[in-house]
Amino acid sequence: MAIHTSRKRRFVLSALGVITAVGLLAGCGSSTPGQGADEGKGEAGVTTVQFWHRTFTPAENAWYKEIVKKYNASQDKIKVVDTEVPGDAWDQKMKAAQAAGRAPDIYTHPGSIQDAVNAGQLYELNKVVDQAKLDEIIDAAQPVSQIDGKYYAYPLLLEPQAVLFWNKAMLDKAGVDSSVGPATWDDLLAACAKIQPTLAKGTYCIAPASDAGTFAWSTVGQQYNFAGHTALSADWSKPDINNDSYKELMSKYKELWDKGYMPKQALAAYQEGKDFGEQKVAFKVSGSWMMSEIGSDFKDMLTNTGVGKFPDASGGERTATTLGNFKWVIDAKSKNAEAAGKFLEWALAGDPANLVPFFVDTQFTKVPVRQSVQDAVAKDEGAAKAPWSKVVIDEIAPTAIPEPTYPWDVSLAVGTAMESVMKGAATPDAAIATAEKAIQTVIDRDKLSEKAPKN
Amino acid sequence: MTTATQDARRRRSERHDRYRYRDTKLALLMLAPVLLLLGIFVIWPAVYAGFLSFQDWSFYKDPVFVGFKNFTDVLSDPLFLATIGRGFMFVLMTVPPMLVLAYLFSSLVVAVSRRFASILKVSVYIPTIISGVITSIIFVLIYNYSGGLLNAFLGLFGIDPVAWIGDPAWALLAIAIPAVWLGMGLTSLIMVAAMVDIPTEYYEAAAMEGAGWWQKTFYITIPQMKNVFLYLLVTGFVAAIQQFELPLVMTGGGPLDSTTLPNLFIFNHFRNDINVGYSIAAALLLFVVLGSVSALVFKFVNSERLVD
After folding, report:
1. Where are the alpha helices (DSSP H) in A75-161?
2. What CATH topology corresponds to A43-159+324-385?
């Protein structure tokens, strides 16, 4: 009898165990929200396309929402589902999606496409976008769109990544000419010497890049400005930073740091205009996009803001900025590449009227990548009220160099050297030696000399 | 020895075994759910990670076998070695101060009245239930260069603002403080529990012999709490060297990598690298480091059964 009870109890317990296990597992296996059960083919032949875009400034986010809405309303075969992903969450969200084989069909992509193309991540656009539309991309944007005639990305915009902004009132107060910015580094340092005594507590002369990561991407133009080349030799076989030009660039930042012209801890990120908008700095270095934040969040500052080239060290010979970009790409594993291509073509390569609000709402600080769009934007009545637009589009952008196509770790090694020298953690020689070693490691590890651009 | 006695012994042992292993099947059945989950979420990923650490894989192309390349890349990377060293430094900055502070705090708790002790226990436990991300944000506000609480306070004494999380000399310490603040609660409560468990007779006997506070502490309290210290040391070490959210939110690993702790280093590589092999190899190597140090701690500080 006792045995019987025990068996029954055992049976009940084991059944419970199995149920618990199944229940727990079922909980874990629930489907991801927002993903169709059969990869995008919904009811009645409507194809669903997943579109991820980063959180940018408010005006840009609004444009992304609107363009998707407009496209969905314009036809009934393709439904685009857009997801706005915060910038700092982008990488891990994307990696997790890729690892699970659930990357979105189409998404935004900054910087160079070289690495992603090598990894086989991007879909060839020639297959789904009309060739005539691809040919429309202006020359300056070609290097970020195609490799050897094969297109992998369609740019939305180009924008200079290092532009000098200044607070006219603060410059006037110190007796510094606020109608034009400082043309050279010496002018900038002289201006700061005049401005510093007039500053209130907690305010500073300039807020430039100040950490290794930001130095890495935002000063590539300045490296070119000082040295006439960037961190690698032309054949990518060795680092090319052990020279006086690189040391001088580093010493200039050290001077800003040592003399207290810049805050010892960034008041706002390089990309943001908060410190400038709140009038805590007289000069701010940022990308041209900062103007759209000033336009949306600090409207009163719009007329008090001067915009100009980043100070020069080459006697006016070379630019001091790279041209950043944001592109749309289609995932190589997308099952709806055709539909994604149609959406991309409609939004970026179609009617210029779709794109005009984007460039107008971002305060005319970005360069459209098609001549027809450039013309349409210039015709907008707001263009006349944005004098900085001319500076950005006609003076800065045309000579700016494209972003480097070598791996990020190379840029980061230079950025780290710049931060160490600036903060006095290492002498220029020691910092450059460390960076050279780090770059050489990357060259050997990734066999860079085989990947160097042909011309 | 006769066969009869041997037989009897065998029978007795069989009966004993049957008695002993009677519940094995049931035990396994009851363990099944957790074993299944462990298998799916721990064992299989670990095996798969081991497999991937020998491959070059980017999610888009088929993995390519590269032998030990990922491991040699990691081990020859001065940044990885520096990051492990920094992890140990962070352990030194957080675990000993936390243990000492928690010890002093729990000594206070057991010494005061019951009602006051409850208030103390609740107040020290509050940080534990606050999320690390919220803590990071609060401390970033405190450390803010221009307008932060700490610099404003120092300003009262005419001290110039310090770039707490912008200066490589201060940054690691600046994130160690919230780490101690977060970890204090649980550590203190465990110590309080251990102290309450020490029989009061020991202290009475010691008092009769004329022992003072120091003698009671060194000859009774601390030896009686040895196992608890061992536990706190190992868990504290593992938690500190794996600290991740504080540097991620507060400094992003900067300035000049001075707060890039091992997990953040691996995470950054996972985020930025096209191929995942490097990050996985680094994670497995960190696992080896953690395992060896924990084993060393256990070897040198033996846990013993307390005297009843």
Report:
1. 87-99, 114-118, 131-135
2. D-Maltodextrin-Binding Protein; domain 2 (3.40.190)
C-alpha to C-alpha distance for B164 and B173, rounded to whole angstroms: 9
Q: DSSP label at B242? A: T
Comparing CA positions, the residue from B110, B114, B105, B123 lying closest to residue B193 is: B110
Strands A204-207 and A281-286: parallel
Segment A225-261, tens digit of pLDDT: 999 999 999 899 999 999 999 999 999 999 999 999 9
Give the chain B residue whose CA is nearest to the CA of A21: B33
Residue with tokens 């700092």: A88
The mean-pLDDT minimum among A2-11, A214-223, A284-293, B101-110 falls in A2-11
Q: How much of chain A, in percent, has pLDDT values that exceed 70? A: 90
- Phi/psi for A345 (5° steps) reads -65, -40
> Rounded to a whole number, what is the distance in Å from the CA of B223 to chain A's nearest CA?
42
Return the SS3 of B9: helix
For chain A, domain boundaries: 43-159+324-385, 163-320+405-450
Chain A residue with the nearest C-alpha to that of B40: A25
> Which distant-in-sequence residues (6+ apart) come within 8 Å of B5 by Cβ?
none
Q: Using CA atoms, how far apart are residues A162 and A270, in angstroms rounded to an integer?
A: 10
Please indicate whether residue B261 or residue A21 has the higher confidence score (pLDDT). B261
The answer to whether A17 and A11 are in contact (CB under 8 A) is: no
Structure tokens at A426: 């290492």
* pLDDT single digits (tens) A34-82: 444 445 555 568 999 999 999 888 888 999 999 999 999 999 999 999 9
Q: What is the dotted CATH code of the domain comprising B78-300?
A: 1.10.3720.10
Distance from CA of B261 to the nearest CA of A (A): 16
What angle in degrees, to the nearest 10, is found between the helix axes of B149-156 and B132-143?
30
Do A280 and B40 lie within an 8 Å CB cutoff? no
| C-alpha B225 chain-centroid distance | 18
Q: Is the dihedral of CA A317, A322, A328, A330 positive or negative?
A: positive
CB A159 within 8 A of CB A289: yes
pLDDT, residue A221, reads 95
Q: pLDDT at position A354, please?
A: 92
CA distance B91 to chain A (A): 23
Binary contact (B255, A419; C-beta < 8 A)? yes
Report CA torsion sign: A275, A278, A283, A287.
positive
Residue A306, token pair as written in the block: 């001067």
Question: What is the average pLDDT across B206-228?
Answer: 89
Q: What CATH architecture applies to the domain A163-320+405-450?
A: 3-Layer(aba) Sandwich (3.40)
Q: In terms of Cα–Cα distance, which of A122, A65, A54 is closest to A93? A: A54
Residue of A nearest to B36 (CA): A21
Res A379 pLDDT > 80: yes
What's the DSSP call for residue B219?
I
A73-90 per-position pLDDT tens digit = 999 999 999 999 998 889
- Tell me what pLDDT residue A446 has: 82
Q: Which residues contact A374 (CB under 8 A, 6 or more apart)?
A: A367, A368, A393
- Say if A43-159+324-385 and A163-320+405-450 have the same CATH topology: yes
Rg (CA), chain B: 26
